[in-house]
């Protein structure tokens, strides 16, 4: 945002006529955003008073990092720089009034805000996206038939009838055009019929013709009485002619606010004349950036242009533009109108607390969000199909490598190797869950702030959809394929315990992945953190190092290892009751319930390094192989899962920089 401080900020409003036939113009000021003599009943007068906005920047090396504040807006009474409508409020001061009154705490839920980057579910159709918005944002007292009628009316009004049942489109699915996509985004906000509609650069990514059609649509809405406030970069002349009120900012300071049709005359009066056939919007950008030929006209005739001098004089040009504006009649008229609005009223310059209100119940939100999530998975099956395909492939590979394990000494090594691979594979296969909250971050933040649904609803929907489709089904398929190919115990109880353990390990690893990635914005960074965590967990899983031999000051790390709990449970399930000595001379037996060797061949087995029973091997590993020893590992995995899910939810809930 900071590198785009010099831009054109334009508010579209309506020219209305008073009872005596005198034209009156709604004005959105630069130092304060207001509307003058607004007569339409639906639009709202928005005024910004003494708005300042600062961001905190971290500078210097990691060991000597310092926090510095950079001021983005300087006592501006307007909608501010592009993209600033929904930024971190911690650096914001000033007051925004709606029709002369403080904005309600849930103003974000009552107004419309169209973000710069389109945020709609690409796998759904235009109609389905609009129905989703209507179901969650319109009051629950509105019947579903009326909501559907509202959707149909909007489709007609936005000119989307031909593509109403076409998918919006994703990177993998071809969808509607850019202009139709932008109109769909606008429709998502118009569902609630807001009196004020904010748009952040609505022409971004659109060609000139498509951008013109979008702005014509907005102009029609302004003519119907809506207050439309938007920022835009370098509009062509046919678009510029549509604007009623123009605000120009340079380095966060206002240099003009007034009627758009008077802007050229104003700049000509202060010494900056626009050349013939030049686009006014381009001319204004050149002037406020110090690049206009109007700033160098005196040097062009007979003198060489010193570009270093021009660059050095840019600060002087900014100061002059600010000073000229503060001395002009437009600034004085704005201040008079602001004083009229605030006369006899008290307002604070400190940012007020904001709340998010909902028009639908928790279960209604869960129904729609969960349904959309599953539908998105069904219509975009690449991830789930790939996950299932990789799972089957790995199951066949591990089954072929360890095929038909024997009840001998080599069978011990093969069994423990197979179980270790299975638990480790379940952990690393959950790395795909890192994208769960990252890829839809912008969509979630926008819909949450706009009052679509609660954080808990979104979180629960994503958890359920991921666990069922990408964790439970692959774990069951993997167990069915690998278990019988390897030749583990053939008893039903052992098989179902194996399947349950593998699934539970996948759940716990997925929860940890979510806890790590919930507040990350880059998938690669989340993958790095998770990979490092899983590698350390592998070391303390019980195979690579004998856990009883670890020094006490490091031994506690084993309690943080997900593979350790899974591997221990699988070892107890598989090894208890197995015999590995075919030669009676060296076979040892276990006294029931005693855990002690009962024949004299025990010394022989120690001498030969032979392990004859599964229980003996578990004793060597220091594993308690009672029934409770098995289930305590499951309990530990369940507790870790809950802890990680709570951490992930809290991270998602308190992402303050987006709210």
UniProtKB/TrEMBL annotation:
Record domain ABC transporter: where: 41-276
UniProt source species: Oncorhynchus tshawytscha
The UniProt record lists the keyword Iron-sulfur: no
Main location, first listed in the record: membrane
Enzyme Commission no: 7.6.2.2
Subcellular compartments: Apical cell membrane; Mitochondrion membrane
Membrane topology: Multi-pass membrane protein
Reaction equation(s) it catalyzes: ATP + H2O + xenobioticSide 1 = ADP + phosphate + xenobioticSide 2; sphing-4-enine 1-phosphate(in) + ATP + H2O = sphing-4-enine 1-phosphate(out) + ADP + phosphate + H(+); 17beta-estradiol 17-O-(beta-D-glucuronate)(in) + ATP + H2O = 17beta-estradiol 17-O-(beta-D-glucuronate)(out) + ADP + phosphate + H(+); pheophorbide a(in) + ATP + H2O = pheophorbide a(out) + ADP + phosphate + H(+)
TM region(s), chain numbering: 385-405, 468-488, 494-516, 528-551, 634-652
Gene3D superfamilies registered for this protein in UniProt: P-loop containing nucleotide triphosphate hydrolases
UniProt record similarity statement: Belongs to the ABC transporter superfamily. ABCG family. Eye pigment precursor importer (TC 3.A.1.204) subfamily.
UniProt keyword annotation of Membrane present: yes
GO biological process, one term: lipid transport
Name the UniProt record assigns to this protein: ABC-type xenobiotic transporter
Keywords: Cell membrane, Disulfide bond, Glycoprotein, Lipid transport, Membrane, Mitochondrion, Phosphoprotein, Translocase, Transmembrane, Transmembrane helix, Transport
